Amino acid sequence: LYLEGSDQHRGWFHSSLLESCGTRGRAPYDGVLTHGFVLDEEGRKMSKSVGNVVDPADLMRDYGADILRIWVASSDYSDDLRIGKEIMGSAVDAYRKMRNTLRYLLGALAGFEESERLPTEKMPELERYMLHRVAEIDAAVRDGYQAFDFKGVWRTVADFASLDLSAFYLDIRKDSLYCDHPSAERRRAARTTMEILFDRLTVWIAPVLVFTTEEAWASRHGTAMGGGGFASVHLRTLPETPAGWRNDAHAGTWEKLRDLRRAATGALEVERREKRIGASLEASLTLYLKDDALLAAVKERDLSELFITSEVTVEKGEGPAGAFRLDDAPGVAVAARVSEHAKCQRCWRYTDDVGADARHPNACDRCAAAVEKMA
Description:
The chain has helices spanning about 10-25, 55-65, 65-75, 85-110, 125-145, 150-180, 185-205, 210-220, 250-275, 290-300, 305, 365-375, and strands at about 1-5, 30-35, 40, 80, 285-290, 310-315, 330-340, 340-345, 350. It is mainly alpha-helical. Helix 2 packs across helix 3 (about 65-75), helix 4 (about 85-110) packs parallel to helix 8 and helix 5 (about 125-145) packs parallel to helix 7 (about 185-205). The mean pLDDT is about 95.
């Protein structure tokens, strides 16, 4: 591979090609990768006389090497690159989001042992959907690195960590992590999936966040031979993804459910803005659906878990005029109201079974059973 700036198209790239073709009858390289030049924030060539030179050593001192590497990885190197304080600020935000995701996973996996691991076939649908997403992201990462598309790799993994994990899966599974009994299959499935997520995230972004991933890896596995027998994340290769994780039909259903979740979240935000509720668990939702396929998709599903609210009922139809609707989700309406049930003091959900167990008058049935099992 020949790697140089775009000025070498008429320089080294060209002269070495002519010489090699004349002496060996072939190109001297298997591939050519060219990059642009680094300019200041306003797109001007750096010059000592102008005083706009940005020293990489200063950037590493102020931000750290990993944040500088994010700037490189998230830039389109085929064109000229700009750098400055505002641009580096975006890299800082991206770094903070990724680091917080890794930190959350480390906390959620505290004490995780192999005996807790749950086989894929026993996992709830949500976990199997996340494994499907892991398989999709893994394929994109492999293709991206192979094509030197570092910007595509970083964007794919960063969006996955932000949108699929922080704003979706981890948000939903907090309740199970905090409130289910440690032996509950749902909690075991969640922790098993989070262990896989941590493992893949660190390997995917290790070439970019070389120090942060090593720090996270050491926090998870120690300095001994951990994580499949590797003392360092940088000694690993991308692990093979089981073919059984891919399920396009199953994933299609979950994409529809995520659209419903967006509508529910919008309705809850309106209630918060109007000061009718504080937390989403204070609300009960009625979901109106016109489409029979959507009605079938939500049948016998715990939508209150998906929407992070205390109660969800589903009705067929357009819904009342005042219901919340999204322009890009036709045939879906959500009406919200304050829950009429009592609040469980352990999980904070409002349910009709709070106090059903006389031994725990302020707890719902699930929490009462979990407390008794841990007693």
